[in-house]
Specification:
207 residues; three-stranded antiparallel sheet; two-stranded antiparallel sheet; 3 domains; mainly alpha
Length: 207
């Protein structure tokens, strides 16, 4: 079935926001698909980012606040004035009015449009730099692949899994299992088997 212009807009924006939040998306089909977890897959037009704050938009706003805090602390974009304006708008709830942490009034349409604007700016100006600076090395990639083959990582957003892979690989580097006289594959495999509980606990905090 051919989508209307409005449905295409809802689809494209939902895919944009979900990917920003770290979820896997599929963009080739007519409706688009978002994989929130192994048991929760939705078509992009079957989302409510554009109409519901609590269940949908709030997590996006939280992620935007987190990203803005990191960008401001690093000052690596050259757009600090723009970042300051956005940070104030989100952090001080100029878009969302709260009382004692309970949302009492929200202009969903305004928040939605501002979130789309921010994510598009982020993807154009910041994401390429972040990607270039944070690529996994071959060793980190190998660690991540072996970790996923031995342990369940299915419910973790991809950006969080990326962060944990880098952090856990650093733990492996500093461990007694990292032996120069042994092959890297063998050492990583032994580390994952011997530290399964520690790794699982680190991964489970994101579920």
């Amino acid at each position: 079935m051919e989508l209307t212009k409005e449905q295409k807009k809802i689809r494209d924006n939902a895919l944009l926001l979900a990917e920003f939040e770290g979820y896997e998306v599929e963009t080739e089909s007519t409706y688009g698909n978002i994989f929130y977890s192994e048991d929760n897959q939705r078509t992009a037009i079957d989302t409510a980012y554009h109409t519901l704050y609590g269940r949908w938009l709030k997590s996006i706003i939280d992620k935007i606040e987190e990203v803005l805090e990191n960008l401001l602390s690093q000052a690596n974009t050259g757009d600090n004035n723009l970042l300051d304006e956005w940070y104030k708008a989100y952090k001080h709830k100029h878009l969302v009015y709260e009382s004692n942490k309970v949302v009492i009034s929200v202009n969903v349409n305004k928040v939605y449009k501002e979130a789309i604007k921010f994510v598009k700016w982020y993807n154009l100006n910041v994401k390429p730099k972040v990607f270039e600076e944070s690529k996994l090395s071959y060793s980190e990639y190998l660690f991540g692949q072996l970790m996923q083959s031995y342990l369940s990582c299915g419910n973790i957003p991809y950006d969080r899994l990326f962060e944990e892979t880098k952090a856990l690989y650093k733990c492996f580097e500093d461990s007694d299992e990292n032996i120069e006289t042994k092959g890297e594959y063998e050492c990583i495999e032994r580390y994952i088997r011997n530290n399964e509980s520690f790794i699982t606990n680190s991964l489970n905090k994101w579920e």
